[in-house]
Specification:
Length: about 160
Amino acid sequence: MLDAFPQLEEKLISLSPAFKKLNNPILRNTIAKVTSLEQAASMVGIRTDDLILQLKSLLGITDADDKAKIEARESEYLLDEGSLPDWYNKGVITGRFDATAALDKGDNPLRSVNNLARELEDGGILEIRSLFVPVPMLEILKGKGFEVFSIKRGEDIFSYIRRKS
């Protein structure tokens, strides 16, 4: 896949630090050639179909069915003001991160968010501002035992990550 679409390498790395191994030419020419999309998705803790949708979206080849699937995945995390989880408390937000600003600077927000989430104390909440529901990131964090949800406020999406007590 990377031979046909080399522009995906940096995008894969932005999804997870685990893909940084692609920078090593020996590993890229051995492991990457025999790793399936299912195995790659498992490495970063997301569903295979989500990885495929992300890759298709990055290549600009999504169709109406793909867009419907993306919206369905987003709706799993996107709540309205009346259905916020009991654990959410604005006063307990212990960190904030602007993923939109990070992306504008060319930074990798997933790496930063992973680091900030790791530093959360039990019950601590991290707020992330973005322009879209960051489904792969939320799934990765949920797979690591964090509680997550997103909410739309104005043009922005705010995602909340909580370390379970």
